[in-house]
Amino acid sequence: MRQMLRSFVLNEKIILAVIFINSVVIYLQTSGINNTFLIVADLFCTFIFILEMLVKQLDSGFRAYWKDGWNKLDGTLVILTLPSLVLNFFPEVPIVDFSIFIVLRLLRVFRFFRLMHFFPNFSQLVSGFKLALRESSAVLLCFFVIIIIFGLINCALFKEFVPEYFNTPLKSIYSMFRFCTVEGWYEIPDAIALRSSSFWADVVRVYFCLQLLMGGILGMSFINSVFVDAMAADNNDDVKAQLKEMERKIDRLLDVNEMLRGGKDDQTDGNRSNRRC
Questions:
Q1: What is the structure's pLDDT at 248?
Q2: CATH number of the domain residue 25 falls in
């Protein structure tokens, strides 16, 4: 019985199906559809997740279970969503305030992160992302420093013209961050131009076009290129290692071939000397 239960809850296909079922249930409940069937389905999915966590801890031990990164994610998500089950059994209790449980119930959505288990080569992608983040950290820091400088300058220049964008330094920096993402970038210079003379309107548009060129186009392109190059560096290292291994094998084959040729030449010379004798 225990072996059947273990094979059931540790089957990745079954867990994947339960995650999808739970996703559908949460979607329907969030949409305002809530009936007994959905409540039972949600309880069933939660029970399977709890059972999986307990079986894994019995197999590997408590400490070994919580040392694994994926188990930390799964176990934390299960524990955080447990208080939300109280709402299913005590929906209206006037003595206790269950508002915090309603918030915790929303954390069930984070169960979707368990789908990352089933992504192909996900661990390799994570390691590549960490490497890319480390390699491009200096570039990202410089980019944010440039945004902060532009934000402070624009706050001093335009806070009286467009306070909705540059009223405070923090709001100004946020507006420049939006501006450099090239999403509705023309809204800010157009808003300033509407409140300025025709000459200063043209100057403002040229000024913000230069900022867009430096921060939005060139800056973001440079960051993307550095980040993508760092992401691919891990794969390039593997390819380079394989090429070096192939070169070593080819060198060995050439050395063996030279040795065989040398042996044949020595044998041929010996035969010739014997014939002469």
A1: 81
A2: 1.20.120
